[in-house]
């Protein structure tokens, strides 16, 4: 017997049928029928944030740490526009998300009604797809399609705009959940082309200076194990993008660190000198390639990606393979095994390549004399190292955007995928705390740390209130350099040290008191000898169930190095201040 | 090397689909020279024809990006295959004297165009053909004063048995 449900009830039922556990949202007029439907059921919990942007980042953190789509519910007009930044953030990093926005009733659309915004139009360039509900009976099918599109192929956010009258409790329709979703115009590739895979395998086995360059796609595609096997099978060095950290264990001998603008010397040099760049689930972002015309001059390029439009978009590719990275890498592993069986290769074919890499490694671009000598200011890098040490590398770490983000990426050695949660593509300040909340709700018994800067933190610190309401015991490490540090660094390097609107040291709040005012534990440290005890205090068992904010006053003069030289190749890097050791 | 692409696109006949296609071009900085769109014999589909210009890599990107739009069902570059391109132009010219009228009429015949509206002062001519023919017609109007030009944007179809369908 088919049930008859109102649009509001149907929407929630459809979410339940998709396996949704949480909705992150904020109510308002056009969403109230839906909110009432949430109130009248027990299967899905609603998490009330304090700003819609935070709802999207929270859903995003939930999605990044679990692989499941995050679900957001906002009202029309300002509710919807507040969600835009979070949608764009998810879009740039290909995060599966379904955003439900209230809309004015159908008959009022286009009349500039109260709280009317053309959400489908506003969000069009930053969604994978969007729907507007025109009849409540279409809701089950629209929801099924939205989840299908958000989670398959190259994942991304999908908006469902819901005019208020389509959720009217007085109007019901039969609830019929589609058994499967079929769309003639949407059929993402899965298996890679066999001939191309054989070609790629031969190229990888034959290469004498290969580098595996892997990105967020390996994490999204759950292909970390396959990538690791492939690298180990052939003893190939691996570098990860900012989005790809954790796909390959960072403490492994074959790992070169992150590449790109603030990548390690060895990773960027190995790319530049490689004879084969083996790219997996990465998109040759400008923060990686530097000048594409000077990119990896001696390398042929294999590129595996689920999105055909990512292939050959920035640099020419010799062996393109479109497909799900996990499936392609599985086929590739078999192919490589076959090749090695036919023609065993000696274990030392890559020895001379590794000895060159070892020479680059000796430059030790990340060693900035981090010894905690009393009297010295706290170096932000040391704060991250201490966090790594105290959490034994096992925390989920979300970050905001700026210098602290790069330090976290460089010094926290991620051993597993989905542990490093950061806005790589859009670089959204304000992402850190709410995304950590999404991670924490998905992993209630895990340690979740948020590395933030005082600037980014102030963009969404109202969420401390949400954290109290739902008892999220997040550990926030705020690297407080009393400035928009990354902006200031660029001004130091490119604008003669003129700090236009990047400092505010005379007007910063006391973050310890702020944490306390929101009902949490606040700590502050400014002497290097107190750093490790303070970090240990954060994670002390007595604070296990408490949110702790540690305000770390770091050396405001510190820059992030290495840094690539604009307009150069990947080999052009500055390794330390004042051009010392410049290559 | 830039070249001209005639992109023939089948899209789901759904609200919003066209704006996604047009939005893609402005969002990614691709140029559109002409755009025409209308329903097909299959009422669930619309067919769009766009003329764009770019080097091979750009055109390849445009096609890939078009395919990423969920409602796009098929894309074909008609410039890459044996195809027919047609556009309608309506052009209003001053035709005040007998000499002028005769000369315009001669040109109309040469181009196998048609005079579709006549007033004591003007002729309105309909020209059908690929873009270069329309341009040649405009150029050949010479002394006649052109008052208004309206073009439909190109459409096209493959020659022979080849069809673009789902
Ligand atoms: C929403 C937003 N606005 C502006 C920027 C540009 N921006 C990048 S880093 C940065 C400074 C960040 O300051 P803070 O959070 O204190 O981090 P720090 O660099 O000092 O570690 C700014 C303003 C951005 N990324 N996001
Ligand atoms: Mg700062």
Task: Please describe the topology of this protein.
The complex is a heterodimer of chains A (583) and B (166).
Chain A: E1 4-6, H1 7-17, E2 22-25, H2 32-39, E3 45-48, H3 52-66, E4 70-74, H4 78-92, E5 97-103, H5 119-123, E6 129-132, H6 139-151, E7 157-163, E8 172-174, H7 194-206, E9 210-214, H8 216-220, H9 224-234, E10 238-240, E11 255-258, H10 265-273, E12 276-280, H11 286-289, E13 300-305, E14 319-322, H12 325-342, H13 351-362, H14 380-390, E15 396-399, H15 403-411, E16 420-421, H16 432-442, E17 448-453, H17 454-457, H18 463-470, E18 475-480, H19 485-494, H20 511-517, E19 521-525, H21 528-538, E20 548-553, E21 563-564, E22 573-574
Helix pairs in contact in A: 1-2, 1-6, 3-4, 3-16, 7-12, 9-12, 10-13, 14-15, 14-21
Chain B: E1 3-12, H1 17-27, E2 34-39, E3 45-54, H2 56-68, E4 72-77, E5 83-94, H3 98-110, E6 114-118, E7 122-129, H4 131-140, E8 146-151, E9 155-158
Bound molecules: thiamine diphosphate and magnesium ion (MG).
Residues 402, 453-455, 481, 483-485 of chain A line the site of magnesium ion.
Verbal overview:
The complex is a heterodimer of chains A (583) and B (166). Chain A has 21 helices and 22 strands. By secondary structure, chain A is of the alpha/beta class. In chain A, the strands form 5 sheets. Chain A has a 6-stranded parallel β-sheet with strand order 3-2-4-5-7-6, with helices on both faces. In chain A, strands 11-10-9-12-13-14 form a 6-stranded parallel β-sheet, with helices on both faces. In chain A, strands 16-15-17-18-20-19 form a 6-stranded parallel β-sheet, sandwiched between helices. In chain A, helix 15 links the parallel strand 15 and strand 16. Chain A is globular. Chain A starts with a strand and ends in a 9-residue tail after the last strand. The relative contact order of chain A is 0.11. Chain B is α+β, with helices and mostly antiparallel strands and 166 residues long. Chain B has 2 domains: 79 residues, ACT domain (Alpha-Beta Plaits, 2-Layer Sandwich), CATH 3.30.70; 72 residues, Alpha-Beta Plaits. Helices cover 28% and strands 40% of the residues of chain B. Chain B contains 4 helices and 9 strands. In chain B, strands 5, 6, 7, 8 and 9 form a 5-stranded antiparallel β-sheet that branches. A 4-stranded antiparallel β-sheet of chain B has the order 2-3-1-4, with helices on one face. In chain B, a hairpin with a 3-residue loop joins strand 6 and strand 7. The longest helix of chain B has 13 residues. Chain B is elongated, with a radius of gyration of 19 Å. The two termini of chain B are 32 Å apart. The mean pLDDT of chain B is 95. Chains A and B meet through strand 6 of A and helix 1 and helix 2 of B. Bound molecules: thiamine diphosphate (TPP) and magnesium ion (MG). Thiamine diphosphate binds next to helix 15, helix 17 and helix 19 of chain A.
């Amino acid at each position: 017997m088919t049930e008859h449900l109102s649009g509001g009830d149907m929407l929630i039922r459809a979410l339940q049928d998709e396996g949704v556990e949480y909705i992150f949202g904020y109510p308002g007029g056009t969403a109230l029928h839906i909110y009432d439907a949430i109130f009248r059921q027990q299967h899905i919990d609603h998490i009330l944030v304090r700003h819609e942007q935070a709802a999207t980042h929270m859903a995003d953190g939930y999605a990044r740490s679990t692989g499941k789509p995050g679900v957001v519910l906002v009202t029309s007009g300002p509710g919807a526009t507040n969600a835009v930044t979070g949608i764009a953030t998810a879009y740039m990093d290909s995060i599966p998300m379904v955003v439900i926005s209230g809309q004015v009733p159908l008959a009022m659309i286009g009349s500039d009604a109260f709280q009317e915004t053309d959400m489908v139009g506003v969000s069009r360039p930053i969604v994978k797809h969007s729907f507007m509900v025109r009849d409540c009976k279409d809701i089950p099918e629209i929801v099924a399609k939205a989840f299908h599109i958000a989670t398959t192929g190259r994942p991304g956010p999908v908006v469902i705009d819901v005019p208020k009258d389509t959720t009217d409790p007085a109007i019901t329709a039969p609830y019929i959940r589609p058994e499967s979703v079929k769309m003639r115009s949407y059929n993402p590739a899965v298996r890679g082309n066999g001939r191309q895979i054989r070609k790629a395998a031969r190229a990888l086995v034959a290469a004498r200076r290969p580098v595996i360059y892997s990105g967020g796609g390996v994490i999204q595609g759950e292909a970390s194990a396959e990538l690791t096997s492939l690298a180990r099978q052939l003893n190939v060095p691996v570098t990860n993008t900012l989005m790809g950290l954790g796909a390959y264990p960072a403490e492994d001998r074959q790992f070169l660190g992150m590449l790109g603008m603030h990548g390690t010397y060895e990773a960027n040099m190995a790319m530049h000198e490689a004879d084969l760049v083996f790219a997996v689930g990465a998109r040759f972002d400008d923060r990686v390639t530097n000048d594409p015309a000077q990119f990896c001059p001696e390398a042929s390029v294999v590129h595996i990606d689920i999105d055909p439009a990512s292939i050959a978009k920035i640099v020419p590719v010799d062996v393109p393979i479109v497909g799900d990275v996990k499936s392609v890498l599985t086929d590739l592993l078999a192919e490589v095994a076959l090749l090695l069986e036919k023609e065993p290769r000696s274990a030392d074919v890559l020895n001379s390549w590794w000895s060159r890499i070892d020479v680059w490694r000796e430059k030790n671009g990340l060693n900035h004399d981090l010894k905690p000598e009393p009297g010295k200011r706290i170096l932000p890098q040391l704060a991250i190292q201490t966090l790594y040490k105290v959490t034994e590398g096992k925390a989920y770490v979300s970050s905001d955007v700026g210098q602290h983000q790069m330090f976290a990426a460089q010094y926290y050695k991620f051993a597993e995928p989905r542990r490093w949660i950061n806005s790589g593509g859009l670089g959204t300040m304000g992402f850190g705390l709410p995304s950590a909340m999404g991670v924490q709700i998905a992993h209630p018994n895990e340690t979740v740390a948020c590395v933030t800067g005082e600037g980014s933190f102030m963009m969404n610190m109202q969420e401390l209130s949400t954290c109290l309401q739902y008892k999220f015991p997040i550990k926030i490490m705020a690297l407080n350099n009393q400035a928009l540090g990354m902006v200031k660094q660029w001004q130091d390097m490119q604008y003669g040290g003129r700090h236009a609107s990047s400092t505010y040291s005379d007007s910063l709040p006391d973050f310890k008191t702020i944490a306390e005012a929101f009902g949490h534990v606040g700590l502050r440290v400014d002497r290097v000898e107190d750093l490790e005890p303070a970090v240990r205090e954060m994670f002390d068992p007595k604070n296990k169930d408490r949110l702790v904010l540690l305000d770390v006053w770091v050396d405001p003069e510190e820059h992030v190095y290495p840094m690539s030289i604009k307009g150069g190749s990947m080999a052009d890097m500055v390794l330390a201040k004042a051009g010392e050791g410049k290559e | 090397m830039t070249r001209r692409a005639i992109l023939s696109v089948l899209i789901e006949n759904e609200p919003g689909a066209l704006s996604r296609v047009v939005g893609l071009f402005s969002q990614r900085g691709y140029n559109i020279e002409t755009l025409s769109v209308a329903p097909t014999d299959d009422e669930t589909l619309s067919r769009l024809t766009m003329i764009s210009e770019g080097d091979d890599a750009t055109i390849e990107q445009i096609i890939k990006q078009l395919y990423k739009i969920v409602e796009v069902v098929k894309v074909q570059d008609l410039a890459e295959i044996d195809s027919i391109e047609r556009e309608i132009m309506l052009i209003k010219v001053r035709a005040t004297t007998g000499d002028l009228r005769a000369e315009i009429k001669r040109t109309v015949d040469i181009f196998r165009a048609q005079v579709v509206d006549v007033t004591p002062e003007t002729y309105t001519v309909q020209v059908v053909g690929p873009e270069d023919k329309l341009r040649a017609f405009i150029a050949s109007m010479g002394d006649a004063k052109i008052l208004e030009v309206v073009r439909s944007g190109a459409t096209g179809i493959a020659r022979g048995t080849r069809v673009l369908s789902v």
